[in-house]
Amino acid sequence: MTYFIIIISAIFVNNIVLSQFLGICPFLGVSKKISTGIGMTGAVTFVMVIATIVTYFIQEFILEKFGITYLQTISFILVIAALVQLVEIVLKKVSPPLYQALGVFLPLITTNCAILGVAIMTVSRDYNLIEAVIFSASSAVGFGLALITFAGIREQLDLVNVPKGMQGAPIALVVAGLLAMAFMGFAGLV
Amino acid sequence: MNQWKNFSKGFFKDNPVFVMLLGMCPTLGVTSSAINGLGMGLATTFVLVMSNIVVALVKDFIPEKVRIPSFIVIIASFVTVVEMVMQAYLPALFEALGLFIPLIVVNCLVLGRAEAFASKNTLGSSVVDGLGMGLGFSMALTMLGAVRELFGSGKIFGLSLFSESYGMLIFVLAPGAFIALGYLTAFINKVRKA
User: Fold this and answer.
1) Contacting residues of B for A142, CB less than 8 Å apart
2) d(Cα B100, Cα B37) in Å, to the nearest integer?
3) Which of chain A's residues have a Cβ under 8 Å away from the Cβ of B190?
4) What is the pTM of this model?
């Protein structure tokens, strides 16, 4: 039951993009087409789950054991940066088709605050390993849901006549606001 | 280079929030009130100036290939400093900003200035650039925070202007952040071009 609550909460109620404001840069940057949105979601899911598992072990067995939790920010971001590089190299070798699909998005992920944010949240909420995996995976699903829905709306938005001053970023932000309002309907679900 | 131009570009011409759309996560996440926006802006300014200084000083010693990880370590060190100082002296602000303080590390504005400016320019210009960009960022966050606070609860910096019961709660909540920033961006762009 706890797992179920974690999943629903991470995907809908506390959606990582629309209510936690993490990962806004890719949310606004790569949401012009649905296909790129799907690619980005795949890459984020992949890295987010692995990064959360690795940072979980680092927190548990290195930082807490030696009482150096103040090094959390530095160690986590370094691990994530190295991990992204590693994933890129491994994918290139092991699965060229997957690398083709996710490749361009991987370098962008180091500075995606959703990855670091989820890693820190996992630690600060004292999740165990299974909960951490479930939480990170469903956060990634929530990110994908928001990103792909938003990309779909923006594809439609290209066809309408937007007032001159609102073109580009302003109209995208207002649309994102309306989408966030729709997601607020899930509040109180868990 | 003209230092005044270098300083002032962060406010209007190349404002990090309204024009370059950098650092959107903290911009939207912490601006439920003007004071939170200002606090976040100043914390980011500190990190930005300090990392610009260090990057400008060590740029000749860092091999090209590992420059991004090195910049991230430099930035992360200053973020840790900010985190500890704030926790010790401003615990209320520390609580309010929460997760977004460690996330200054991945603020694309900070890394962006280190990579695009400080790694190519002299120490003096880098300090001025960091100050200008940081204060421009603070200005944008404070403006957004003030707008949301005013419409949401009828206050600015905690000073009550009209009764809270007339406030529109939506501006304090998540959707209001996007909508307020959207209209504010449109407004600033209009002013900038005029």
Assistant:
1) none
2) 11
3) 165
4) 0.89
Domain count, chain A: 1
Task: Indicate whether A1 belongs to any domain.
Answer: no
Establish if A38 belongs to a structural domain: yes
Residue pLDDT, tens place only, B33-56: 899 999 999 999 999 999 999 999
Q: Domain range holding A53?
A: 15-185
Among the partner-chain residues B99, B107, B174, the one whose CB lies closest to the CB of A19 is B174
Q: Is A140 domain-assigned?
A: yes
Residue A2 Cα, gap to closest chain B Cα (Å): 23
- CB neighbour list of residue A180: distance below 8 Å, 6 or more residues apart: A18, A19, B174, B175, B177, B178
Selected residue of A12, A63, A77, A184 to mutate for chain B interface (largest B Cβ count, 10 A): A77
DSSP for residue A68:
-
**Chain A CB contacts of B107 below 8 Å:** 113
In whole angstroms, what separates CA A112 from the centre of its chain?
Answer: 7
Chain A 91-110, residues with CB within 8 Å of chain B CB atoms? 110
What is the tens place of the pLDDT at every residue in A50-103? Answer: 999 999 999 999 998 898 888 888 999 988 888 888 888 888 888 888 787 776
**Domain extents for chain B?**
2-14+22-145
Question: Which three-class secondary structure state does DSSP give residue B155?
Answer: strand
Spatial separation of the C-alpha atoms in residues B64 and A26, rounded to whole Å: 26
| CA dist list (Å): B9 to B20, B118, B134 | 12, 15, 11
Residue A117 within a domain: yes
